[in-house]
Write a structure and sequence with these properties.
Largest sheet: 5 strands, mixed
Helix content: 25-40%
Structural class: alpha+beta
Order of helices and strands: HHEEEEEHEHEEEEE
Radius of gyration: 28 Å
Oligomer: single chain
Low-confidence stretches: 1-44
Number of strands: 11
Strand content: 25-35%
Mean pLDDT: 83
Length: 203
């Protein structure tokens, strides 16, 4: 009976030691090769976005990624609460055999000096434009670019709080790959570039 008890204690000690050794090996392995976190992976992807910057000028065509883009004008409208809504009058030519779809949300953004981050498309601006702009002038997101064809019209927009009259407008010429954002065309917009909606645009 005493021998049986001794062997039972010895067996339990052996199992415990083996389990501890396995945990130790596992911990050492994870320390020597730490997995890449999702935030690190995302940061690496973001570092590639906009790495190739092209300076654009209003009224001048820029061709990149089989896309010819012209920013014809920048329109600033005020809603009932005094917020500034920014729209873009653009011409975009597709020189490929593939039709594709673009959107303000995915392809354009605004950077305001002194603020962190970027401003992306605001759905309220589209509702405002549908109520106040002619259907033949304003196009909701997303908008289609025909193969070997051209798109022209007013798109947008962005909501800016306060009296902001200078900002940078960025456009990603992604073509038929919505994730192809390595190149960005940037426009430095000043107060002189902002135009109120004309009678030709308004309903």
């Amino acid at each position: 009976m005493k021998k049986t008890g001794f062997f039972a204690v010895l067996l339990a000690a052996t199992i415990t030691a083996g389990a501890f050794a396995g945990c130790s090996d596992k911990n050492e392995s994870s320390l020597s090769r730490p997995p890449r976190t999702s935030s690190e992976s995302t940061q690496m992807d973001h570092d590639e976005i906009g790495s190739n910057v092209i300076k654009g000028e209003i009224g001048k065509e820029v061709t990149e990624n089989d896309t010819s883009f012209t920013l014809n004008s920048v329109i600033s409208a005020k809603n009932d609460t005094g917020e500034q809504f920014i729209y873009m009058d653009i011409t975009l030519r597709n020189s490929t055999a593939n039709a594709y779809t673009l959107s303000t949300l995915n392809n354009l953004y605004i950077e305001v000096p002194g603020s962190s981050g970027i401003i992306t498309s605001d759905v309220r601006t589209q509702l405002y434009a549908k109520q106040n702009f002619k259907d033949t002038k304003f196009y909701e997101d997303p908008f289609d670019i025909p193969s070997n064809g051209q798109f022209s019209g007013i798109i947008g927009g962005f909501a800016i709080e306060g009296d902001v009259s200078e900002f940078t407008l960025g456009f990603y010429p992604t073509g038929d790959d919505p994730n192809a954002k390595g190149t960005v065309i940037k426009y430095d917009i000043t107060a002189a570039d902002l135009a109120a909606p004309s009678a030709e645009i308004l309903k």
